[in-house]
Amino acid sequence: MTGSSTLTGGLTAHLLPSGARPSALDFAGIAEPDIIWEDARWCRFVERTDLHDVRYLEVREDGQTVALAPLLFTAQPGGLLFYDPPRLVGTPGALAEPELLDETDRQRWAELNAALPGAREDQYPSLALATFGNHHGVAHAPGRTHDERQAVMAVLPELLQQAGDELGCRSVALLYVGESDAEAVDHCASRAGYTATLLGAEGVQDLAADSWTEYVAGLSKRRRVRLRKEVADYERAGMHTAVRCGPEALDDEVIALQVAHRAKYGLPGGEDRVRRDFDSVREELGDACVVLRTERADRLVGFVLYLRTRDTLFARTAGFAADARGCYLTLTYHETARWAVEHGIRHVHYGMAAYEAKHARGCRLRPRWGWFSFRGAGSDIFSETLALQSQSIERRLELVGAPAAPVASRHLSAPTEPKVER
């Protein structure tokens, strides 16, 4: 496939050599797109990681590049959790909540998880079609119609398997696909033997107001009361918000707070890794950086780093001091909205997890799907675990009040017995 693979509809595909990627001048789809995760600058940032090798699928039509899809190659265990397919399956946390399953399913989950560690070892190398940022990362050429984009998405499961074969992979996954593309992907993926899984939902806040006063006035009474209380508590605690933009916004205070925040929650990566990550963001995306800071008595106690496109903010990372109670909710949702509406921002993408907080503060929860293909004797273990994993996240979103409509293959595999009222 490094040469070419001919597909239906006149499309051809190429697995680009290691280290190769068209520039933004060569392919306009990655030249300042609306979604930061498809931007050439973001591509360069991801390529600097030392946990995955990055390759690209180039899709052409009539000799022109019409789409570029990033691939994250994991040679052995130890990649980033959310982009390491064998490890992502069955790991409780943001993408699996087994405690929400019925008792019988919880018991089966435990049995499967006892078998997974041994099964995972046989699934490397592994390949994920995705990019950091919980996004599939597929960039389309500007001006492509909806149907033309769907045609590309529909062939990606087949292309991914071919690329995996060429790279000697034992497992592949196409991750973080939204509702607009899910049906096209699922049709092809189900025929190719993939297992569909609801990975979660991205919280997106849409902002129509042009001022803070207009924004607050447009909220429901319940949300307006909550906002005023949380902002008042924030201010009574002596906290205030400062905003810095550009590469200088990622200073030593921000790095130190991020290191402390990760240590508090037992997240991997010490100061060296955090500093390398922030240095890469500064060097590749510095002009897109917006850091909202919570300060108290001249001390930084909270921050959220956003990456900005024309009218959208994308949350990248955050950190909060242990003694800054209430800072997270106010800074992330209210103070961000205040700054956003005053600076021409119409959308804020908050990423996944923390669904209750996002939904209660006006975010739409947009489902994100993944498709997995495993080989060998342990493949059934992965498929069954993924079905339960999806069921747990489906239940989480139902409980939040934002249920996700299942893709066709998931609907066909879902239990038919009526659910017990909870």
From TrEMBL:
It holds the Pfam family FemAB_like. Keywords: Transferase. GO terms for molecular function: transferase activity. Gene3D superfamilies: 3.40.630.30. This is GNAT family N-acetyltransferase. InterPro entries: Acyl_CoA_acyltransferase, FemAB-like. It comes from Rhodococcus oxybenzonivorans.
